[in-house]
UniProtKB/TrEMBL annotation:
Domain of life, per lineage: Bacteria
Family recorded in the similarity comment: Belongs to the ROK (NagC/XylR) family.
Keywords recorded for this protein, A-Z: Carbohydrate metabolism, Xylose metabolism
Bilayer-spanning residue ranges: none
Its job: Transcriptional repressor of xylose-utilizing enzymes.
Protein name per Swiss-Prot or TrEMBL: ROK family protein
Keyword set includes Cell inner membrane: no
PANTHER family: BIFUNCTIONAL UDP-N-ACETYLGLUCOSAMINE 2-EPIMERASE_N-ACETYLMANNOSAMINE KINASE (PTHR18964:SF149), ROK (REPRESSOR, ORF, KINASE) FAMILY (PTHR18964)
InterPro entries (UniProt xref): ATPase_NBD (IPR043129), ROK (IPR000600), WH-like_DNA-bd_sf (IPR036388), WH_DNA-bd_sf (IPR036390)
Annotated Pfam families: ROK
Coiled coil residues, start to end: none
Record carries keyword Iron-sulfur: no
GO terms of biological process kind: D-xylose metabolic process
Length: 396
């Protein structure tokens, strides 16, 4: 007897749940397959999902009704000796989502479709929201994104916020800039914003969303299932994916790479004791002090200055990544943010070469730049679709 059958035999209340659960799984499977392929025939859907033809056709009919698929005049391969059937094309723009990536006093806001295409984007100034608790500029930008959807349903908005967050509780777990040390609901911190935005609102740490955006954009390319994401700018944040899942940890602090001690041999410092962290060494302010460099607002340093900064950064970055690769066993490290963007692919190359010389030969790791400046917005939109997909697809 399999596990599902044993559950049903022990507890009768499981029986009505299992058919709905399986319908939901079937619809997810077809959705993911069509999103990846773009277009397929009914015969291909049946073959590649392993479903029976009647089951697959029920899913297809539901997707056609919801506008997720359109039927083309073009024909596809036949099933067995049957005649060819029309191809079905996935419509990524049938539904949209708004993604937000907060970066200090500024935020990137975008409107994206289900395939990760960004139709509209803008950067807005949030001001000193940590003091004023006023996110009205963001609410206005979200309304503009909804208008840009031109009538397509917008399923929700996901906000990448620079704090430790509990997405399930929609709560800020801790955020030093606002002196939040205990879990506090986002609605309590920003009540006016919460009332003003009429869409479902989802929350996640900003680096986590950028990491998920990278994974989404790299799907099918390999290596994104076990990934370390580092964003270096005004601070140094990070995120970790292991076995294809984002990891948050017991206190939603997983990925806080910037807090790593540069000299752990000195022991753990007391709460008020001075300490030197990775963030202290590699953030914008550190580079500006050391090199007099201005990397903000898209400024590009001269090649001599850029190379001096790469040589300096290679030490602390390769050391930190080495420790994390050996501890977490990731196979990809993405360097993103203002600093890697200004210093170019050469920074990734230098860090990669240093790791290659240090890591065991059986522990390969790729060090690469971000594949898109929109990764945070795309990760946020993908989170909206992930969280709302079951309700959209239905299971009845």
């Amino acid at each position: 007897m399999d596990i599902c059958a044993r559950c049903s035999a022990r507890e009768g209340r499981m029986e009505p749940y299992l058919p709905n659960y399986l319908k939901g799984k079937n619809r997810r499977l077809v959705f993911d397959l069509l999103r990846e392929r773009g277009q397929m025939s009914r015969a291909e859907i049946t073959r590649d999902t392993g479903m029976s033809f009647p089951t697959a056709m029920k899913v297809v009919d539901a997707f056609l009704e919801k506008g997720l698929l359109v039927e083309l005049d073009e024909t596809g391969p036949a099933a067995g000796a049957g005649r060819k059937g029309r191809l079905l094309r996935f419509e990524p723009g049938a539904y949209r989502a708004v993604g937000v990536e907060c970066e200090g006093r500024f935020a990137r806001v975008g409107l994206a479709d289900m395939a990760g295409g960004v139709q509209a984007r803008e950067t807005i100034e949030l001001g000193d929201f940590a003091r004023t608790r006023d996110l009205s500029p963001l609410a206005a930008a979200i309304r503009r994104m909804c208008a840009a959807a031109n009538g397509a349903p917008v399923l929700g908005v996901c906000i990448g916020f620079p704090a430790n967050l509990d997405p399930d509780a929609a709560a800020i777990v801790s955020y030093a800039a606002m002196d939040i040390q205990q879990p506090t609901s986002f609605a309590q911190v920003f009540p006016a914003f919460w009332r003003e935005v009429e869409l479902p609102v989802y929350l996640e740490n900003d680096a986590n969303l950028a990491c998920e955006g990278e994974a989404f954009l790299r799907r099918g390319a390999g290596g994104a299932a076990n990934m370390l994401y580092l964003s270096i700018g005004s601070g140094c944040g990070g995120a970790v994916r292991l076995d294809g899942k984002l990891r948050r940890g017991a206190r939603c602090r997983a990925g806080e790479v910037g807090a790593m001690l540069l000299q752990p041999a000195l022991g753990a410092p007391g709460r008020s004791a001075a300490r030197e962290t990775l963030e202290d060494a590699v953030c914008l302010a550190a580079l500006e002090r050391r090199f007099g460099a201005a990397l903000r607002d898209g400024a590009q340093p001269g090649e001599a200055s850029a190379q001096a900064m790469r040589d300096y950064l290679c030490g602390p970055l390769s050391g930190a990544v080495y420790s994390l690769v050996m501890t977490l066993d990731v196979e990809l490290c993405v360097l993103a943010g203002i600093v890697p963007g200004a210093l170019g692919m050469q920074l990734c190359t230098q860090v990669s070469e240093a790791l290659r010389a240090a890591l065991p030969e059986s522990t390969p790791v790729r060090v690469e730049p971000s594949v898109s400046a929109d990764a945070g917005v795309i990760g946020a939109a993908a989170t909206v679709f992930e969280r709302s997909l079951d309700a959209l697809l239905g299971s009845g």
